[in-house]
Design goal:
The complex is a heterodimer of chains A (about 270) and B (about 800).
Chain A: H1 16-24, H2 26-76, H3 83-91, E1 112-115, E2 118-120, H4 123-132, E3 140-144, H5 150-156, E4 161-166, H6 169-181, E5 187-191, E6 204-209, H7 218-222, E7 224-234, E8 242-248, E9 254-259
Parallel strand pairs in A: 3-4, 3-6, 4-5, 6-7
Antiparallel strand pairs in A: 1-2, 7-8, 8-9
Chain B: H1 3-30, H2 33-43, H3 46-63, H4 65-89, H5 102-131, H6 136-160, H7 163-183, H8 189-205, H9 220-226, E1 230-238, E2 241-248, E3 270-275, E4 278-284, E5 312-316, H10 322-329, E6 334-339, H11 342-351, E7 365-369, H12 372-378, E8 383-388, H13 394-399, H14 412-420, E9 422-433, H15 440-454, E10 464-468, E11 472-478, H16 484-496, E12 500-503, E13 516-518, H17 523-531, H18 535-541, H19 565-570, H20 582-611, H21 614-617, H22 621-650, H23 653-681, H24 686-712, H25 717-735, H26 738-749, H27 754-779, H28 781-801
Parallel strand pairs in B: 5-6, 5-8, 6-7, 8-9
Antiparallel strand pairs in B: 1-2, 2-3, 3-4, 9-11, 10-11, 10-12
Classes of the chains: A alpha/beta (about 270), B alpha/beta (about 800).
Chain lengths: ~270, ~800
């Protein structure tokens, strides 16, 4: 009896012959599912190992951030970050926000390039900015410059809702997908020019402007609720270390505070 | 030496000089100019490598000298193009150096690639010096004069051709040099013709894309171009920068440094012009009525317009014309606008004049191309307001990437000149980026206070007012003490805009630091201390260098103090790095690397030379090293220092550099040619006489040049150039002599050491350029000149004691 051919070779695509080979050999028919199952188990184990490795790296990172925060507390006014901020950082998987080639650096305390001339901020700075905003679950945050979406994800852990605006379409799309996949529901991403804020959802309790500018957009100041805070990192990509914190008092008076994470030798006063 | 060969040497040497200048442009566009400095400095160690290489290969190459020369010259032509474009592919990002150790590896690969063309050219020239050592003076003359012409020609060509065509042309020149050398021998005429054909083909057919510098995407231009709707509307390249005009109708560009948080006027449509992909300046759309420029009144720089009514204004640093617009908005009676870069003036004054509302064609406005300080020094006009605008980029200032530019605009002497041009009620206003901890703002105040003191102000502190926003500070320096009226007008100006009063005469501490709160030390405390009796101690104890900048130490942007370093490094990941003044650190890093590499390059050949015929070396190693090392260091010390001096006379830094560099090299070339005569006349004392001439003239210039310049300043430009060249001529002529004299002597006494001496000279030149800057920062350019005199003296002594006394060996081949 001729071998019954389950796949018509005329219509078989390129891997067709391989499929035919599998289909015609019983040992292979058994072996392939076994191998697939084995691979899946291995992948699960490896995934767990990786996840564990990420957890370990993340814990190291958090410790380092707390240490730096304690070191620089004198000038930022914070002796260590709040438990809420640290918990948020612990919960958000930064490795989901970096490029594949940077996975090994996902939990290094450094900024990383994400393409389009943009970076994912240094975790220490993300923690500092989040902490400075003093967010609570009933508050709304506007972020100008979504980038990878990491800052939004961290802030979403402590805020009620995060509205984030990104001018580069591809980045906005990636961030939206990423946040959706991670199940972050309280972030809305929009592709737009952030200079004018997001008037429909204004006023905001807090605003983060991550896109560097040579001046602070006055429309954003206007969209800040009295009693609200705005934080702006200053300097070029990769070297952002100085923050400006803008506070709008309940009477509407606006003040800016400039924060340096670095402690300097005290000045000698004039004689 | 035959004429074609001399021309070949000159062409090659000129191409190397051109390449050096072009590379600086290349890296200033692609990265930042400090890295350009470091990369080029280290790549030029290719000169040192050629010396080492020739020590090993001299015999083999000298038997077929002309083909060898042509091969390396041809290699230069090819590698100038190939290595430069290959270096563009290395993913080096200067900003990531802090975080990523791999960046150092990338940097190293770039050094290696770019060293290849330098190595090839230097091998050709070094080989010529070795083979034709009886004619050292002529070879070196061709080398120096070629370099001199090269400097002048490349700058002219850079105005005419884009960067990629300049690079292709340099490749072509290398091939032509190879062709010329081959043409000097009958049997190699056909390959010579091939070389020339290749050169023409290179210039005509090389694609432009891979030869263009790749812009670092994190520079301001790169960032602007990622925004949807951004469009480059024009691009001009020239020796003063690559100017790129960008327009964006979808997402408007908004440039308004120092804008108040309370600003309620919108920023009109703008066109941004970037220099080398950074430092945007805006051409602002506005109507006849100027009502749309109201936002300009919300910047700190508007302060002086609230203190003087309807002023006659001088704007230094026109850029896109915002300051001119600001002056017109505030009803200035007349505006003289000075722009350094003629291409920028053309771009905003002609090409995009329509967009900018033909602002420079208004009857009240006149646009001048020139350098601000020399314009102020020579004009007969008196102004009510001299406004120095803010043209350098904030990101660079914030990250400390801007340190180390010599600037003749921000010195005590310059401020004195500006104050001298003011009407009795007039004032000078300077706007700078506000950085923390404060340093530029304090150095500015210190410089202004020192200038006021020199003009005879009895209480300088009564003449100054300063306001600051979160990122900009404007200092006003009045010729007369500020009246109570003016003081209260400044208060109102600041209060309405939520600007802080950084300083006013008689201000109380609690009036400062209210809106843009900074921790101690506040700017007020600093300026107050600088204006007080304990200013010197304050400057001494301050963690940054805020001593007034002077013409001798024109480093306004240099703030680095050693004691800051450990603290900042400790805080590397938590924010320290941007506060280091990178320029200085990079300069030091360059020096360390250059010294290590030089030591290796100089010591390596010793193993061969020591092992070789002892009769040839005669134990001249250390005297050779000392003599040629000292000459190599001293030559550039003097060249660089006088270049800086003559900028003060000639005004425009680019033209000054071209005139002085070209003049120096041409006259030194002539001196080298003449040195053969001197040698024949007094073989024993030639070097001593040449050195005596150099030291004497240098010291004379050191003492009298500033006074001479004062007398010469009113002369027309052409006359100033002529006088400058006449002043340089005798000094440069003498400086052209010691090297060929000593090398000729070495060729007689120990020919095997000639390539080694060539390599030492190459290494010394690299070290010299870096060392000169480091000495000038701490001790001033006068000290650099004194050091050079000392080094020349060392060279003369070593030569007199050892090298000059070594008996000539009976040479096998010195008559080649």
């Amino acid at each position: 009896m001729p071998n019954h051919d389950p796949i018509d070779p005329r219509y078989a695509p390129l891997p067709g012959r391989f499929a035919k080979f599998i289909a015609t050999r019983r040992d292979v028919r058994v072996a392939v599912p076994t191998a697939v199952a084995a691979c899946m188990i291995l992948a699960l184990v490896a995934g767990n190992v990786l996840a564990d490795a990420y957890d370990a790296a993340r814990n190291d990172l958090l410790e380092q951030i707390q240490r730096d925060a304690a070191d620089t507390g004198g000038l930022t006014g914070r002796r260590g970050f709040s438990p809420e901020t640290m918990a948020a950082l612990r919960r958000v998987p930064r490795h989901e926000f970096v490029r594949k080639e940077h996975l090994s650096l996902a939990y290094a305390n450094r900024p990383l390039p994400i393409g389009y001339g943009q970076t994912i901020s240094q975790p220490y700075i993300v923690a500092l900015m989040t902490d400075l905003l003093d967010l609570s679950r009933d508050q709304r945050l506007l972020e100008v410059g979504t980038g990878s979406g990491y800052q939004a994800a961290v802030a979403a852990e402590v805020a009620g809702h995060v509205y984030t605006v990104e001018i580069i379409g591809a980045l906005a799309g990636q961030a939206r997908d990423r946040l959706k996949n991670l199940g972050v529901a309280n972030v809305t991403v929009r592709r737009a020019d952030g200079y004018h804020g997001w008037p429909r959802h204004a006023p905001f309790d807090a605003i983060i402007v991550t896109a560097a500018a040579d001046h602070i957009p006055p429309p954003l100041v206007r969209q800040l609720r009295p009693g609200g805070r705005m934080v702006i990192p200053v300097g070029p990509r990769f070297l952002t270390q100085q923050l400006v914190l803008i506070e709008k008092a309940h009477d509407g008076r606006v003040t800016a505070r400039q924060l340096l994470p670095v402690r300097f030798v005290p000045l000698t006063r004039k004689p | 030496m035959t004429l074609p060969l001399a021309l070949a040497v000159a062409l090659l040497s000129g191409a190397v000089m051109g390449y050096e200048i072009l590379l600086m442009r290349f890296f200033s566009v692609a990265q930042w100019h400090h890295f350009a400095y470091m990369v080029i400095g280290l790549a030029m160690l290719g000169f040192g490598v050629s010396g080492t290489f020739l020590v090993f290969a001299r015999e083999r190459l000298s038997t077929r000298f002309v083909p060898a020369f042509a091969t390396f010259a041809g290699f230069f032509g090819v590698t100038v193009v190939v290595a430069t474009s290959a270096a563009q592919l290395v993913p080096f990002n200067a900003l990531e150096v802090v975080w990523d150790p791999w960046q150092f590896a990338y940097l190293f690969v770039i050094y290696l690639l770019l060293a290849v063309p330098f190595f090839c050219a230097a091998t050709s020239i070094g080989l010529t010096l070795y083979v034709l050592r009886s004619g050292t003076a002529q070879v070196y003359r061709a080398d120096l004069m070629g370099a001199g012409f090269g400097a002048a020609v490349i700058v002219a060509v850079m105005f005419l051709l884009p960067i990629d065509r300049c690079l292709a042309a340099l490749g072509g020149v290398g091939l032509v040099a190879a062709g010329l050398a081959l043409a000097s021998e009958r049997r190699t005429r056909r390959p010579a013709a091939l070389c020339v054909v290749g050169a023409v083909a290179a210039m005509a057919f090389l694609p432009d894309e891979p030869l263009m510098p790749r812009l670092n995407p994190y520079k301001a231009l790169g960032q602007a171009l990622t925004v949807p709707g951004a469009e480059i509307v024009s691009e001009v390249s020239g020796p003063l920068g690559l100017l790129t005009a960008v327009r964006n109708d979808e997402v408007p560009l908004r440039h308004a440094p120092g804008l108040s948080l309370n600003a309620n006027a919108d920023i009109p449509e703008q066109l941004a012009v970037y220099t080398d992909g950074d430092a945007p300046t805006a051409v602002t759309r506005h109507g006849e009525a100027l009502s749309s420029s109201a936002y300009l009144d919300w910047r700190t720089a508007a302060l002086p317009y609230h203190l003087v009514a309807e002023p006659r204004v001088l704007v230094l640093g026109t850029g896109g014309g915002d300051e001119v617009l600001m002056a017109l908005h505030h009803r200035a009676r007349s505006v003289d606008a000075i722009e350094l870069n003629p291409q920028m003036a053309r771009l905003v004054g002609r090409d995009h004049a329509e967009f900018g509302g033909r602002i420079f064609e208004r009857p009240l406005v006149s646009l001048h191309v020139g350098e601000g300080r020399s314009f102020a020094a020579t004009t007969d006009e008196a102004y009510d307001l001299i406004q120095i605008s803010l043209l350098d980029p904030f990101s660079a200032a914030a990250s400390g990437l801007h340190a180390l530019n010599e600037s003749t605009l921000y010195t005590v002497e310059a401020f004195e000149t500006f104050l001298g041009r003011l009407t009795p009620d007039g004032m000078l206003a300077v706007t700078r980026w506000m950085r923390l901890p404060p340093r530029g703002s304090l150095k500015l105040a210190a410089t202004a206070l020192a200038a006021l003191e020199r003009t005879g102000a009895s209480r300088p502190r009564d003449h100054i007012a300063a306001v600051r926003a979160w990122n900009a500070v404007t200092l006003v320096v009045a010729k007369k003490p500020l009246t109570q009226d003016r003081i209260s007008m400044a208060r109102t100006f600041a209060n309405v805009r939520s600007f802080d009063l950084a300083y006013l005469p008689g201000i109380a501490a609690d009036e400062t630091n209210r809106f843009n709160v900074i921790g101690t030390p506040t700017v007020y405390q600093g300026i107050d201390a600088l204006a007080g009796s304990g200013a010197a101690e304050f400057v001494e104890s301050y963690p940054f260098d805020i001593a007034p900048a002077t013409d001798d130490r024109p480093y306004f942007f240099h703030f680095f103090k050693w004691r800051l370093l450990p603290e900042l490094l400790k805080m590397r990941t938590a924010g320290g790095i941007p506060f280091i003044e990178w320029g200085y650190v990079i300069l030091l890093a360059t020096l360390v690397q250059a010294l290590l590499a030089s030591a290796a390059l100089i010591l390596l050949p010793l193993t061969v030379l020591r092992g070789g015929a002892p009769s040839e070396s005669k134990g001249l190693f250390w005297s050779t090293a000392a003599c040629f090392g000292a000459i190599g260091l001293a030559f550039l010390f003097i060249e660089i220092s006088f270049m800086q001096r003559f900028v003060l006379l000639l005004g425009h830094p680019l033209y000054a550099v071209v005139v002085i560099l070209t003049g120096f090299l041409l006259f030194a070339g002539l001196g080298s040619g003449w040195s053969a005569k001197l040698r024949r006349r007094m073989p024993e004392r030639a070097v001593s006489w040449a050195v005596a001439g150099i030291v004497g003239l240098a010291l004379l210039y050191l003492a009298f040049l500033p006074a001479v310049f004062e007398v010469l300043r009113p002369l027309p430009e052409v006359a100033k150039v002529a006088v400058s060249l006449a002043l340089i001529a005798p000094l440069a002529f003498a400086m052209g002599m010691p090297f060929p004299l000593a090398l000729h002597r070495l060729g007689e006494a120990s020919p095997g050491l000639v390539p080694w001496a060539w390599g030492i000279n190459g290494c010394a030149s690299v070290v010299s350029a870096v060392l000169a800057a480091l000495i000038a920062i701490d001790w001033g350019f006068d000290a650099v000149i004194l050091a050079a005199c000392g080094l020349y003296a060392v060279a003369a002594i070593v030569y007199g004691v050892r090298l000059g006394k070594a008996p000539p060996i009976v040479s096998r081949d010195s008559g080649t």
